[in-house]
Amino acid sequence: MPEKLRYLTSGESHGKALLCIIDGICSGLSISKEDINKDLLRRQKGYGRGSRMKIESDSVQILSGVRWGKTLGSPIALLIENKDWQNWKDIMSSELRDSRLQTPDYRLSVTRPRPGHADLAGAIKYNTHDIRNILERSSARETAARVAVGAVAKKFLSEFNIKVISYVTEIGGIKAQNTEHRTQSTDTFLSLFKKAETSPVRCPDKRAEKKIINKINTAIKRGDSLGGIFEVVATGVPVGLGSYSQGDRRLNARLAYALMGIQAIKGVEIGLGFEMSRRFGSEVMDEIFYRAQSTDNLPISPLTKGGIKEGFSKGEMGGFGFYRKTNNAGGIEGGISNGMPIVLRAAMKPIPTLRTPLSSVDIISKKSFNAAYERSDVCAVPAASVIGEAVAAFVIADSFLEKFGGDSIDEIKRNYEGYLKQISNF
Ligand code: EPS
């Protein structure tokens, strides 16, 4: 997969900290801890989160790659402490300090795999009879690090008026009614986002929000869990990111890959998605129109001079030149961004850690038992939607750099301005 930007995360759920290194961010980009912390906080919110979130208050330490508030062009290392580590110091110690741990003692091990988790497949694969060795890293705690990475990518994209936003469209089968937006503009997406930001379940529809909270309450009472669907939208993305030339260069493929890499994601759609397969071709293609230079006095974005009203994507109504009235394609045609908002949707399964007993088999005794666990999130779809923003922002920043790459933010801006000038004359 072509990459200008790379990152890796490390860290266990109850280990000392989460770490990540981002490689490939240009020099001269302003970045602060607050830019990252605000997304870390957004990820921790959401009605239905468990008691772990009362322990953690995620905050980033910037270990390298930034000096006096600006990136150096060198790798950026970020660290987020796990506050809960204090309660797990012995269990998660890297040292064999406790003599009881010198020889396998299954009383200290997790031997009961939870259905739906990585527990059993992971234990068999990594040849361990202590499932803790598996669940610590397969845990979604790791996503805090990815959100930190995404916040850096978003900061980079913001220099080019690109925003990556999200909201929840459905939880436990209850659908938001106002998110049918295939023909809607950037402004509508931004207003859905604004509503979601003040909703405890990131749902822009108040009536659905109420029903969703009731359903989560039912799940809490039952010791059960719920999944759902969220939408990630990128606005202001120029025409021309990604390519049809190879499968792994297709922007849609890269975005789907990134979203599917989030824990518990079971499906991804772009634009009208699966629904497209049910209709005639004439009903789903986004027809192309052209409007000559506008005479009205539209405020013009400095980065898109040559024809786009502020807040609109190139290719949308609101400026002049080529435009479409619909966006069934979700902003990507032939693996290339087409200037319309990029619309992605991901489905999250219900969290598999349940208080409700489910059948499983102990990996030591081989006896059946009914799994029941005390501490867990009941619904983490709102958090997943923030994580979706992060991974999508990273892919878009990477594709952007692939096209306009440079070593400093000024160089990239010059390259981008040149391209915008070129396409404004197309
Ligand atoms: C998770 C289980 C829970 C979640 C955790 C993900 O943690 P614990 O087992 O400590 O109660 O709270 O999510 C986070 C810690 C987080 O920061 O999102 C799991 O098994 O995936």
Write the layout of secondary structure elements.
Elements: E1 6-10, E2 17-23, E3 27-30, H1 33-44, H2 52-55, E4 60-64, E5 66-67, E6 70-72, E7 76-81, H3 119-126, H4 132-138, H5 143-158, E8 163-171, E9 174-175, H6 186-197, H7 206-222, E10 228-235, H8 251-260, E11 265-270, H9 281-284, E12 288-291, E13 321-324, E14 332-333, E15 336-337, E16 342-348, E17 358-361, E18 368-371, H10 381-404, H11 409-424
Antiparallel strand pairs: 1-2, 2-7, 3-6, 4-7, 5-6, 8-9, 8-10, 10-16, 11-16, 12-13, 14-15, 17-18
The protein binds ligand EPS.
Residues 13, 50, 52, 56, 139-141, 144, 353, 375-377 line the site of ligand EPS.
Textual characterization of the structure:
This protein is an alpha+beta fold. The protein has one domain: Chorismate synthase, AroC fold (4-Layer Sandwich). The chain is built from 11 helices and 18 strands. It has a 5-stranded antiparallel sheet. Helix 5 packs across helix 10 (381-404). The longest helix is centred in the last third of the chain and has 24 residues, at 381-404. The protein is globular and about 75 Å long. Bound molecules: ligand EPS. The site of ligand EPS has 12 residues, from loops.
